[in-house]
Prior knowledge:
It holds the Pfam family BsuBI_PstI_RE. This protein is of the alpha+beta class.
Amino acid sequence: MNDLAYDQVEHARIVLESLGFDKERSNERSARILLALLQLKPGDSWSSATAPLLGTRAIMDWIRDQYGVDYKPNTRETIRRLTLHQFAEVALVEQNPDQPDRAINSPKWCYAIPPRVLEVLQAYGTGQFYGLVAQYLREQPGLISRYAAARSLERIPVALPDGRPITLSPGGQNRLIKKMIDEFCERFTPGGQVLYVGDADAKWAFFDEKSLVELGVVVDQHGKMPDLVVYFTAKNWLVLMEAADSHGPVDAKRHRELATLFGQSSAGLVYVSCFPDRQAMRKYLNQIAWETEAWCADNPTHLIHFNGERFLGPYG
């Protein structure tokens, strides 16, 4: 790293420390990420900082090209979790300002410096900077609350069959999961007990571990759970449902994974691939495993059974 690059990284570290970040969040990695978000190359004046929309991969590539530090693909999660998420929590960056309801697992997920923060950072190196920082820090709790409230408004409210309310992160498959709970469960597992709801944002949006244990299922937190697990008490079935619009259906491989994960269940296992509509299902028709069910949210009163001797029931 040449002198100009070293100096610019040090400036970024000073800025982060001035904003109250601890040692971990003001280290060289975080400093380079801030520079990428501001598009500040070695030697650039901070007054020229900009605030484009950047994904994690784009940030890593820019740092490699401008500062000669090549972060390996396996460090992507570290950058996202230990720096970008920390920046977002204190409103230093905004996530998806162009589309707040973007799915958490979308490849278009992006970050940008908000205009109010950009105004402060562009003043670095001038006599106004520390005064603007002090003013920003006084405003910061309000900014954090405002951004948090906006994110909360975007969340999807869901009522479980027993009336308990939960919320799911916006966008992506979670809108389909809501329909699975609202539409499928009402029709095909009436009186059923929801034991697990997945959410890409929090992974375990709802998890009734005690009831699963009572059915003989002990789930490893690292195990790959289906998107929705419902215990249909009237039939003693454990219905394992996948929201297949983005990750694919219950294919032969997934069927084996779920059969292993829930292999000790005292309830019979039923596998259901769920789609937003038949057009989405058509893409996966040749992948759906035999002896499973398929359901389309646009025709919620119908099920499609893939072979086997019975309709909507366990095998084995």
